[in-house]
Amino acid sequence: MGTKYTSKTIVGYNATPPSDDAATTENNRVKWASHKTKLADPIKTLAESMNSAMVAHVDETVQDKSVNYTTVAADHKRTINMTASLTISLGDVSTMGTGYIVTVKNSHTAANTVDLATATDKIDGVINDSYSLEPGQSMRFITNAAGDGYKRLSPRSDVRAGVYGTPNTTTGVNNHEYLSLPSWITKLRMSFYNVSLSAFDAPRVQLGISSGFVTSGYEGGNVYVSASAIEDWVGDTSGFKFYGGTVDASSGFYGWIDLWKFQDDADIWLASWNISDPKSGTPVGMNGGGGVDLGGTLDRIRFDCGGGINIDGGGKTNIYYE
């Protein structure tokens, strides 16, 4: 849609008719020109103004943009479609007014940015915030009641099911890292296919923020089941650990760890994992869960083997996020 509809007022309408003493005089003659100017013309003008405003209000034309663009009042309830590498800036909140809604969609082949035209405005309470939209994703914004920022109506509306990373098959290294993740992620999965290590260890997954990986403060535990034992592990706060007792060069484990953001305006992440190692001398299954408060916005994840241990064999890891 276009500019928000506002109430229209009739102008020039004569609501006070002249007195009529019933005399047959020129002053009492009914004249078309007088009626037109004082009655018909104001009503016609009002009707045309209402019609024009309504046409603008219901205009849902998608606005394709190939260069940097700042949204305006006329973009109310429209979709701004990014067709090239560019930045869409959300217009000044005080100018847009309360209840202004705009959707931004990225139809480009690479990630694009949505930011704020006014540095003192907010997105979900964060001053001068910005978001990265991956190809095919969109985000809808509405000005808040306080008149000082925008609120996301949904993290990603009209979005494909999710985004896959690039599989990492590197061996002879201590970890597999995935960096520069978008700030809007609320669900994240790391998957493992036939991953083995150069020596026995209990590998872990660690999350990170812009200042680096978080290496403490993790809570949780793991239970593993094998043909010979059922055991548990708790207490290591350095990451989410997969402890199965036999993860080494003779192994090849499969499975995933799922991570969920606890709530939209917090940095707490919850984890659960389901891992199996069918290739070891004693096949095991590992299940666990936990949580961590990152103290900042998640932007990275890694699978870490611990000191002196490397990823070995021909396995691979990957991520998927929404």
Shape: rod-shaped
CATH architecture of the largest domain: Sandwich
Annotation, overall tally of beta strands: 25
Biggest sheet record: 9 strands, antiparallel
In angstroms, what separates the terminal alpha carbons? 28 Å
Kindly provide the name of the CATH class of the largest domain.
Mainly Beta
Alpha carbon gyration radius: 31 Å
Percent helix? under 10%
What oligomeric state do the depicted chains represent? single chain
Average pLDDT for all residues: 82
Low-confidence stretches: 156-160
**At the third CATH level, what is the topology name of the largest domain?**
Jelly Rolls
| Structural class by SSE content | mainly beta
Helix and strand pattern: HEEEEHEEEEEEEEEEEEEEEEEEEEE
Count of spatially separate domains: 3
Helix tally? Answer: 2
Strand content: 35-45%
What does this structure look like?
Helices cover 9% and strands 39% of the residues. With 322 residues, the protein is mainly β. The protein has 3 domains: 1-59, no CATH class; 63-154, Jelly Rolls (Sandwich); 163-321, Jelly Rolls. Strands 12, 14, 17, 18, 20, 21, 22, 24 and 25 form a 9-stranded antiparallel sheet that branches. A hairpin with a 5-residue loop joins strand 10 and strand 11 (149-154). The longest helix has 26 residues, at 32-57. It is rod-shaped and about 120 Å long. It starts with 31 loop residues before the first helix and ends with a strand. Mean pLDDT is 82; it is low at 156-160.
Summarize the structure.
The protein is mainly beta. The protein has helices spanning 32-57, 93-96, and strands spanning 63-65, 69-70, 79-82, 87-90, 101-106, 112-116, 122-123, 126-127, 131-133, 138-143, 149-154, 163-164, 175-178, 187-197, 204-209, 212-213, 219-226, 230-234, 240-241, 253-261, 268-277, 284-293, 300-304, 311-312, 316-321.
